[in-house]
Amino acid sequence: MGIVVQKYGGSSVADAAGVKRVAQRIIATKKAGHDVVVVVSAMGDTTDELIDLANEVTPLPPARELDMLLTAGERISMAVLAMAIQSLGFDARSFTGSQAGVITDAEHGRAKIIDVTPGRIVEALGEGAIAIVAGFQGVSQTTKDITTLGRGGSDTTAVALAVALKADVCEIYSDVDGIFTADPRIEPRARKVPRISYEETLEMAAQGAKILHLRCVEYARRYDMPIHVRSSFSDKEGTWVVKAEDVTEGDTMEAAIITGVAHDRSQAKITVVGVPDKVGEAAAIFRAVAEAQTNIDMIVQNVSAAATGRTDISFTLPRAEGQAAMAALSKLEGEVGYERLQYDDSVGKVSVVGAGMSTAPGITATFFAALADAGVNIEMISTSEIRVSVVVAESQVEAAVNAAHAAYNLGSDEIEAVVYGGTGR
Ligand code: ASP
Ligand code: MG
């Protein structure tokens, strides 16, 4: 039998008991005859705590040192997990990202993997050992410094290793039983999706569903590596993320046009009020925002009022980037001549995603009608081939998710979703 890569998230290894439980699971896979490579995240909320610590020391931690600090979280879990496995009589060896051959660019805090040379992992497997790799980290090819891949990056480590090792599957273990039609934390009737395409998973992840790291799905799609998303707290079959052709009819519900509802509470909205309706104004605004390294999402420009010749431009962005974008825009006041800036960080985004939507009329109408019935006001709208998203008040996110979920009959009759762990931090 071939190689299985398993990734365990922070909530699965939150404490010693969790580490021991995970060790048992890994050994069971080894006993079933597989070569096992494990990628592990930092225990519980360790990464957040390390970030808090750095911020107590200095308001702007230097990127190189912050990466050095954060990678310590994964090094703790890899070492204790290797110890736990050894104490049960099996050979296990831990490796940092660098030792495992995860080579990245030099962008601290958001490094991209450019190569994986897992010589030491292959060697360990050849000697019958279980290899444990610290997730979310690598080493820069140019600077030789230690880098991190961005929050949640252990998923990407796992898929990259699975691809480099030609593994049969990459299993991603978390505290829920798979990918659900909505976040079970706010939609109790959410149903587990047995199979889902890479494309739909990408849309769900990009729209805030906290299921998988976005880049891990892109990576898996590029190399066609099947991902099995499942819980480390149960033995249930989870969700298979596979190529679209492999999502067969039987796997999807009768109304398979919509696969799920995603939501995102990490957004903010900036409105530039009273922008003179002239050529080049939008370009100036978005150039400034881009220079502040802001990732903008939805944009709406109102029709200008004939009387004033002015218009409002609104866009959404990650809340964490709000201050920088506002500062950049303030500097433009003279150049653009807008009237004022508005910042609203109590917005949320709700999206319906489904591959079948591109050929089914009326999807958007159903969504908007459901929101209207639930008394949810739509502030902004955007669409892709397989997605419709709306921005609403943050206080209405839950109602919007529940309304959309019901409107597309996504709910199961029984409560299927169990959230086993995690502090949700
Ligand atoms: N420990 C890192 C984080 O919390 C990486 C990961 O969990 O994948 O973001
Ligand atoms: Mg984590």
TrEMBL record:
Pathway(s) served: Amino-acid biosynthesis; L-lysine biosynthesis via DAP pathway; (S)-tetrahydrodipicolinate from L-aspartate: step 1/4; Amino-acid biosynthesis; L-methionine biosynthesis via de novo pathway; L-homoserine from L-aspartate: step 1/3; Amino-acid biosynthesis; L-threonine biosynthesis; L-threonine from L-aspartate: step 1/5
Recorded catalytic activity of this chain's protein: L-aspartate + ATP = 4-phospho-L-aspartate + ADP
This enzyme's EC code(s): 2.7.2.4
CDD domains with a match to the protein in the record: AAK_AKii-LysC-BS, ACT_AKii-LysC-BS-like_1, ACT_AKii-LysC-BS-like_2
ACT domain span: 270-346, 352-425
Keyword vocabulary terms for this entry: Amino-acid biosynthesis, ATP-binding, Diaminopimelate biosynthesis, Kinase, Lysine biosynthesis, Nucleotide-binding, Transferase
Similarity section: Belongs to the aspartokinase family.
Entry function: Catalyzes the phosphorylation of the beta-carboxyl group of aspartic acid with ATP to yield 4-phospho-L-aspartate, which is involved in the branched biosynthetic pathway leading to the biosynthesis of amino acids lysine, threonine, isoleucine and methionine.
Annotated protein name in UniProt: Aspartokinase
Organism: Nocardioides phosphati
